[in-house]
Amino acid sequence: DSGVTQTPKHLITATGQRVTLRCSPRSGDLSVYWYQQSLDQGLQFLIQYYNGEERAKGNILERFSAQQFPDLHSELNLSSLELGDSALYFCASSGSSGLPTDTQYFGPGTRLTVL
Amino acid sequence: AQKVTQAQTEISVVEKEDVTLDCVYETRDTTYYLFWYKQPPSGELVFLIRRNSFDEQNEISGRYSWNFQKSTSSFNFTITASQVVDSAVYFCALSLTMDTGRRALTFGSGTRLQVQP
After folding, report:
1. N or C: chain B end with fewer CB closer than 10 Å?
2. Are B45 and A45 in contact (CB under 8 A)?
3. For residues A101 and A21, what is the distance between their CA atoms, to the nearest angstrom?
4. β-strands B103-107, B3-5: how paired?
5. Cβ B104–A56 below 8 Å, yes or no?
6. For chain A, which ranges sit under pLDDT 50?
7. Contact A49/B at CB under 8 A
8. Does residue A48 sit at the B interface (CB-CB below 8 Å)?
9. Does A26 touch chain B (CB under 8 A)?
């Protein structure tokens, strides 16, 4: 158990809908990262937050957004969902430096299925 | 281009065999970190090792060992006396600087290891 929690574990929804994925980092970690794992794209970095502020952005679509709250939990919002958004979404957290050179500990993931 | 290549898509071995998973990387950063993660069938990503570019010493942890060679830009992972529980997808990752100037973790495509009893 990495100490990172993600909810829900599974999510099934329809095209055009909007969903919110939730992540709680390990105790004491200030950075939260979001990744998408799909069969065709592999593991892709989406976005990083550090202590409530956006720190780095990867290949995140404009339909997707995230935020980190004062209690350091984070939410990833996916809207206008398409079939191709079906994937495993991981959250990871790391320690106080905010640098991705720190070890990132991953949550169990949320499997999103868009029908 | 900056990237991580894991050329072996799938490897199948019989229990107790030794197996090496290859990882080759490209980066323009002079300081960087390399990682290995394991993804068992249950789906979670489990951290195995982190190595910085200044530390070329090989590392051993039980049946696991890592060979970092900066000259060939490789960071290979060997499992000695493999066990069925080692069956998983293994990812090599590199922290690199994106075009935005920010660093991010980039993953290889993974190697699926099947250990047969």
Report:
1. N
2. no
3. 25
4. unpaired
5. yes
6. none
7. no
8. yes
9. no
